[in-house]
Amino acid sequence: MKNIVPRINAVSAKSKKSGNDNSKEAFNEVLGNGSNYHVNRIKTPARCTLPLQTLDTISRHITVLQGCVHVTLGDDVIVLVPDESIYIPQGLLHGIENRANDCAEIISVDYFAA
């Protein structure tokens, strides 16, 4: 993976809140639902952090539409820019950070285990 960078600090445990400014909150819009999937468009303000989490029954595919996001996967951090995506298998610790000074936007597709 060419875009792996070191993790610089722990991700906030507060759900959908920035670790730096509690007034900043991610915006989540549901785009679609099915029997085994859920599609969301997520906008994250500048310096916003989505918490680390492990989903035992859900795998996730994230695509960046706008901005630059740092995706934590276990002990690694991968930088994604527009038109790049990543697959997150079930049970893997992951989180998303927007370290930039501009808003970032992603599409998240969650697949539920049968």
Description:
The protein is an all-beta fold and 114 residues long. It has one domain: Sandwich (Jelly Rolls), CATH 2.60.120. Helices cover 0% and strands 51% of the residues. The chain has no helices and 10 strands. The chain has a 5-stranded antiparallel sheet with strand order 1-7-6-9-4, with no helix packed on it. Strand 2 and strand 3 (37-44) form a beta hairpin. It is globular, with a radius of gyration of 13 Å. It starts with a strand and ends with a strand. Residues 1-23 have low confidence and may be disordered.
Q: Got a strand count? A: 10
Whole-number average pLDDT? 83
CATH topology: Jelly Rolls
Q: What percent of the residues sit in helical stretches (DSSP H or I)?
A: under 10%
The CATH fourth-level homologous superfamily = Jelly Rolls
Overall radius of gyration = 13 Å
User: What overall geometry do the principal axes of the alpha carbons give?
Assistant: globular
**Low-confidence runs (pLDDT<50, min 5 residues)?**
1-23
Structural features:
disordered N terminus, five-stranded antiparallel beta sheet, 114 residues, globular, 0% helix, Jelly Rolls, mainly beta
How is the secondary structure organized here?
Elements: E1 4-5, E2 27-33, E3 37-44, E4 49-53, E5 58-66, E6 69-73, E7 76-80, E8 85-88, E9 94-97, E10 104-112
Antiparallel strand pairs: 1-7, 2-3, 3-10, 4-9, 5-8, 5-10, 6-7, 6-9
Short characterization:
This protein is mostly beta strands.
